[in-house]
Each structure stands twice: as C-alpha cells, then as structure tokens.
Amino acid sequence: xxxxxxxxxxxxxxxxxxxxxxxxxxxxxxxxxxxxxxxxxxxxxxxxxxxxxxxxxxxxxxxxxxxxxxxxxxxxxxxxxxxxxxxxxxxxxxxxxxxxxxxxxxxxxxxxxxxxxxxxxxxxxxxxxxxxxxxxxxxxxxxxxxxxxxxxxxxxxxxxxxxxxxxxxxxxxxxxxxxxxxxxxxxxxxxxxxxxxx
Length: 198
Prior knowledge:
Layout: H1 2-17, E1 26-30, E2 37-41, E3 54-56, E4 71-73, E5 87-89, E6 104-106, E7 121-123, E8 138-140, E9 155-157, E10 171-174, E11 191-194
C-alpha cells in the first residue's frame, strides 16, 4: 500500500522540483505589508498578494500567489495551494491542495491528494490521504479514511477507521479498524460502528 502511495506522490514532487524555480532558494524572512513569514528552500517564493501566510520547509506554500491565512510546516506542505485558511503540518500534508479551504492536516501525507475539498480535518499519517473533493470529513488516526475521494461528513477515529470508504457519507466509526469493510455508505443514512465491525 505504502509503495503505491510513493508512486503517486513521487511524480508530484518531481514536477515541483522541475518547475521554473528549479534552483532552490533558501528563503527566510517576512513578507512586509502582507504579514507573511517564510523559512526554507523556495518557501512562499511566488506569493504576490497573499496575506497572513506562514511557510516553513522545502517548497512550503510554493505556488501560493493570492491565498490568505494558510500555514504550512514541513517539506512540501501546501505546495500547490492558492486557497484560504488551510493548515498543514508534516511532510507533504495537503501537498496538492489548490482551491480547498479551511482544511487542517497534521501528519505525514495527511490530506496529501486533496485538491478542492474543504472543511476537512485529518490528524495522523496518511489520514484522508486520497481525499480529492470530499468535504467536512474528520479523520483521526493513521490511515483513517485513507481511500476517501469524495465522501462527505464522515467521522473516523482510530487507526485505519473507515479506511475503505471512497464515496460514502455521514458515517461514523470509532476504534482501530472500525468500519474497514464499508466502502460506499448511503447518502442521508447515518451509520455508526464502534470497535472492529468486520
């Protein structure tokens, strides 16, 4: 599983490495009247009018030009972001987010493939990793809601909880491996599972 994830992320990182600013520039300082702060190779280097951003780490907030009030701490955090009010802590957290707003990702590759999804919270390595446009999901624990792509309003608490859900919504699972066999719950029908529901 982790090898497939590396195969997915490596092309994105390679693309960033070969982009117009291929020669890394160690940035550190403040963005003057925009109230930005940055530290790291190419961190927040393309900002034009974005305000109140903090980028710490290699290419953190790299493509941000107009997004506001986002914080990226860790290599590749929010690298393609141009949206508002996102927080990413951990290598490649919210890596390819472009327009999704109000997301919080804490952990290596948390919400890494999120593009347009908003109001998601992921805490744990690979939590909500595959989320693309899903909204209002909460995943706490390594691999929680790992496969989710567009499901909405799911809550997964525990290692690998709801890890198989791809498009289902309004599901709640609490406990390690809880709800791992569920893949696509019915919209509008709430399901709650505790502990191992296999």
